[in-house]
Every structure is written in C-alpha cells, then in structure tokens.
Amino acid sequence: MKKTGTVSHIELYVTNLKETRKFWEWLLVDKLNYQLFQKWEKGVSYRFEGTYIVFVQTDKLEPKYNRAAVGLNHLAFYVESSQIVDLIRQEVHERGYRELYADRYPHANGNDVYTLFFEDPDRIKVEIVSDERRK
After folding, report:
1. CA distances from residue 75 to 59, 64, 116, 135 in whole angstroms, order as listed
2. pLDDT tens digits for 59-91?
3. Contact status, residue 24 vs residue 46, Cβ threshold 8 Å
4. Which strands form 74-79's sheet, in the order they lie side by side?
5. Would you call the peptide bond into 121 cis, given omega within 30 degrees of 0 as the criterion?
6. What is the tens place of the pLDDT at every residue in 119-131?
7. Is 103 helix (H, G, I), strand (E, B) or coil?
8. CB 72 within 8 A of CB 24
9. Residue 57: what are its φ and ψ, rounded to 5°?
10. CA angle at residue 83 from 94 to 97, to 5 degrees?
11. Are 20 and 122 spatial neighbours (Cβ–Cβ below 8 Å)?
12. CB 126: neighbour CB atoms within 10 A?
C-alpha cells in the first residue's frame, strides 16, 4: 500500500518524443537510478521506487511550453554529492544541452545549496541539487 500523499506520477506532453527519450533516458536512467517502466508508440515512462514520470508525444504544438506562465516551472532531483552535480554539468555541455544561470553555478539557488539548472528539449527546466550542504 502506498503512503497517503505520495506522488504517483507526473505526466508531461512533449513535442518530439525521440529527442525527449534521448535526454530523459540519459538523465533519469543513467544518472538518477530510474528504470524504464512503460513504452508505447506515443509515450514512455520511467520509474523510481513508487513514483514514475511519463512523457507523451502531443500533436498540439502551440502554444509552446513556457515555464514562466501558469503551470509547471521545473522538475528538481536530489543527488548524493556535489561531484555528481559537476559530472552531470559536464555531460550537459558535452551533449549540447542548455545550462541555465551558468554565471551563478553552482549556487544559483542560494549560497548553501550546490545546484545545477538546465533545460530539456522542450525547454522544461531541470534542477539537480546536491544533498550536501556547502562547508
């Protein structure tokens, strides 16, 4: 039985499922311990413990996603150390993804938090935050 209040899943509509899978499989499966959960022609999901994230190809491409408008602003994920944040940052650049707030890295979220911000192919903001506090 799941605990009351636990997030079951998050579902996001995307403009290009192939590009989305490339991005999110790298991040979720390779870096954050998620597993491929479900896969079908127009969608895919990834699970970590009892929660899963779903990405579905949409045919409605307008209006484009805007994290400053009403709706989802970003997804944030913990990692165990600042070294993992640094590694993910390096790979973000190697893969050609867009880092956000690079001039304030690694403390764009505050002086005592080691954090990386970047965008997925639909410009959804992703935050990777170390569970360590700055010494």
Report:
1. 23, 18, 12, 26
2. 998 888 888 888 899 999 999 999 999 999 999
3. yes
4. 74-79, 125-133, 113-119, 99-100
5. no
6. 999 999 999 999 7
7. helix
8. no
9. -65, 130
10. 25
11. yes
12. 20
Report d(CA 114, CA 57) in Å as an integer.
33
Average of per-residue pLDDT values in the chain: 93
User: Residue 20: CB partners within 8 Å, gap ≥ 6?
Assistant: 14, 44, 55, 120, 121, 122
What span, in angstroms and rounded, lies between the C-alpha atoms of 97 and 127?
A: 13
Distance CA 133, CA 82 (A): 9
* Cα 112-67-6 angle, rounded to 5 deg: 70
User: How far apart are the C-alpha atoms of 48 and 64, rounded to whole Å?
Assistant: 28
